[in-house]
Write a structure and sequence with these properties.
Blueprint lengths: L1 E7 L3 E8 L4 E9 L12 E2 L1 H19 L6 E8 L20 E2 L11
Parallel strand pairs: 1-5
Antiparallel strand pairs: 1-2, 2-3, 4-6
Length: about 110
């Protein structure tokens, strides 16, 4: 039996496939992403689409690595980034379309407080 583990963090998404019978990681993949460049000092934003694309890429890569064993995947576990949330629509598009997500370390409003 195999399980997929996914970690969607602030700088990358990492996925692994674990063989539960022997405890070995038999596939792994990582895709990095960064903050949006060119914003004023203190602004930290990301495109939610980057997260979705990284998830698709890492899962596809892991499934390619395990080949014919993909039918043995029995569970998926997910951990997410701290203080971050990005919803998605039923269609799979990120919410809100075309908008960025402000990161928890953003300091754009400090002077307003």
């Amino acid at each position: 039996m195999l399980t997929i583990g996914i970690d969607s963090g602030t700088q990358s998404t990492k996925s692994v496939v674990l063989d539960l019978e022997n405890g070995e990681i038999i596939a792994s993949s990582k895709k990095s992403y960064g903050m949006i460049g060119g914003l004023p000092p203190g602004h930290l934003e990301q495109h939610p689409q980057d997260w979705s694309e990284a998830l698709d890429a890492t899962i596809s890569d892991c499934l390619r690595q395990i080949g014919t064993r993909r039918g043995e995947v029995a569970a998926i576990g997910v951990s997410g980034q701290q203080h971050g949330f990005g919803g998605s629509r039923q269609s799979g598009s990120c919410h809100p379309p075309g908008k960025t997500l402000v990161r928890h370390l953003d300091r754009a409003a400090v002077q307003a407080v």
